[in-house]
Design a protein that fits this description.
Elements (H helix, E strand, L loop, with lengths): L1 H20 L6 H27 L4 E4 L9 E4 L5 E9 L4 E7 L4 H17 L10 H20 L3 H10 L1 H11 L5 H33 L4 H6 L7 H17 L9 H7 L2 H26 L1 H27 L4 H22 L2 H32 L4 H4 L3 H4 L1 H14 L6 H14 L7 H29 L18 H19 L2 H4 L6
Antiparallel strand pairs: 1-2, 3-4
């Protein structure tokens, strides 16, 4: 299965190169078909890999890369799988080391699904800037970079795949972003790339300090023999890595690039940015900080929890003041990623399981929200709530119904996917790791709970402001068309997954019980 994992990386990159090599007169629809087929194959391959990872095998050895345990035997489940480990750059001690487990695999499948849906969406709905062939190629390059990041088990390889994503997303925002505001989309793209490159530089410095202390970049080796000590160079390394990853999540006050990037990006760019790219930061904290620098992470955990809680409240308050639907959803991501940061900072089984569950749920729900926001913007030529008007139930009943569903899922309605992650995170804050100050985390839990109330407030305000109202005061728009077949095919998997993960959380949680 290691060959299949490498294929999941190579196939999208090869397809992107072929698309760029095609004649310039190649039709947009042909490019979208190629992208849909390739990304569909990658999605099927990732699903097969996940199935093979989870199928019973008798007893197998499991190296807990997450928490740094020694190898131990677990009945019926395997967590270290599909590994490729060869020397790559011997003078720098860099290895081409890939592998998956039950932490990374759901994120790989989520990435493959969202890229497939974005390519499928582009079959009929393309940005006005055209050049769909280049757009699809960039989406496939992003897919390669993200899957590579989620499967990398070498710090330098993790960094390289992490960087592969940046320039393609910068181009997606700059070229295919808001056609009415060229300067705004260029500024948003530039801010995005500068902030993330700055964060990556800090992260790389932290990785170099880890190598100085441990003599290796290999995450599997580091997980089995973590760096002890919560002070000195280990603490500096943990702070640098945490800051670099916090830019990507992003956590307050490093979130300044996010609202503009989402507001100016095309629909498919916003979907991937929120559904996939933000997860690189939170995944990095779970994969690197906790197992490699456990003592130093415990030292900074209260501060990480504090900034995460501020992100929850600040993001929610910012949402209440927004008049643009895409910016509102962007700020909601700041709040939701704050919950994930809080869960990671608890260093507890419940908090970590909640953070990982919320990662998946946020990618599905917020991806759906940005698809819906893009549909509303396409029909009204604006995402400004004041210009769109009210009574969307009367004008676009299916879209408004789906928007209400997605808002309820995002605010954490029980029975939908958004509920379980936040509940487990709050439970983790109630029972943080023994080395952490419980009183501090109890206070943060209360504040985060108030943030959850604010989350419900701004989503219900959005539904009331946009969907409800007197139809007589908001006559139907002549060009408005309700859900098209391609939109229905694109959004349906996300709706189904939102319900499924809401009513059957053991589908994921059963494989994180080793925490």
């Amino acid at each position: 299965m290691s060959v299949l994992l490498i294929a999941l990386l190579a196939v999208p990159a090869l397809a992107a190169a072929i698309l760029w090599a095609l004649p310039s007169n190649t039709g947009d629809r042909v490019a979208a078909i190629v992208g849909s087929v390739v990304s569909g194959v990658v999605f099927v391959g990732s699903a097969v890999l996940w199935w093979d990872l989870l199928r019973p095998r008798g007893e197998s050895v499991f190296v807990n890369v997450l928490l740094g345990d020694q190898p131990r035997t677990l009945p019926g489940k395997v967590y270290a799988y599909a590994e490729t480990d060869v020397s790559w750059i011997p003078p720098l001690d860099v290895r081409f080391h890939l592998g998956i487990d039950t932490i990374s695999m759901p994120l790989i499948v989520l990435t493959a699904l969202l890229v497939f849906l974005c390519c499928l969406y582009s079959l009929r709905i393309t940005p006005r800037a055209g050049r769909t062939r280049s757009l699809i190629a960039l989406l496939l390059v992003i897919e390669t970079g993200v899957i590579g990041t989620f499967s990398a088990l070498d710090l330098v390889l993790f960094f390289l795949f992490f960087e592969v994503v940046l320039i393609p997303m910068w181009l997606v925002i700059d070229i295919w972003g808001d056609e009415h505001d060229r300067e705004g989309r260029r500024r948003a793209a530039t801010t995005f790339v500068l902030m993330t490159v700055f964060g990556s530089a800090l992260m790389l410095l932290g990785f170099l300090l880890v190598h100085r202390l441990a003599g290796t970049f290999d995450l599997e080796v580091l997980g089995q023999d973590p760096i002890a000590g919560g002070h000195g160079i280990a603490l500096i390394a943990a702070v640098l890595i945490a800051l670099g990853l916090a830019v990507k999540m992003p956590l307050w006050p490093l979130h300044i690039w996010l609202p503009d990037a989402h507001a100016k990006a095309p629909t498919v760019g916003s979907v991937l940015l929120a559904g996939v790219l933000l997860k690189l930061g939170s995944y990095g904290m779970i994969r690197i900080l906790l197992p490699v620098l456990p003592d130093a992470t415990a030292t900074i955990a209260p501060y990480l929890a504090g900034f995460s809680t501020v992100a929850i409240v600040a993001g929610s308050l910012a949402c209440l003041a927004q008049t643009d639907v895409k910016r509102l959803i962007a700020y909601s991501s700041v709040g939701h990623m704050g919950f994930i940061g809080l869960g990671i900072a608890t260093m507890s089984p419940e908090g970590l399981a909640g953070a990982m569950y919320a990662n998946i749920a946020h990618g599905i729900i917020t991806g759906l929200l940005f698809f819906l926001a893009g549909a509303i913007k396409d029909r009204h030529d604006t995402s400004d709530l004041r210009a769109i008007g009210r009574a969307l139930y009367a004008r676009l009943p299916r879209i408004s119904g789906l928007l209400t569903f997605a808002c309820l899922a995002s605010l954490g309605l029980p029975g939908l996917a958004g509920f379980w992650g936040e509940m487990l995170i709050l439970l983790g804050a109630y029972h943080p790791a023994d080395s952490l100050p419980r009183t501090t985390f109890l206070l943060l839990m209360v504040i985060a709970g108030l943030g959850a109330v604010l989350t419900a407030a701004y989503f219900l305000k959005l539904v009331r402001q946009l969907c409800q109202g007197d139809p007589a005061e908001n006559p139907a728009t002549a060009f408005a068309v309700d859900v098209s077949p391609i939109e229905l095919a694109t959004w349906s998997p996300l709706v189904v997954l939102t319900v499924f993960l809401g009513v059957w959380p053991p589908f994921l949680l059963d494989y994180w019980t080793f925490l």
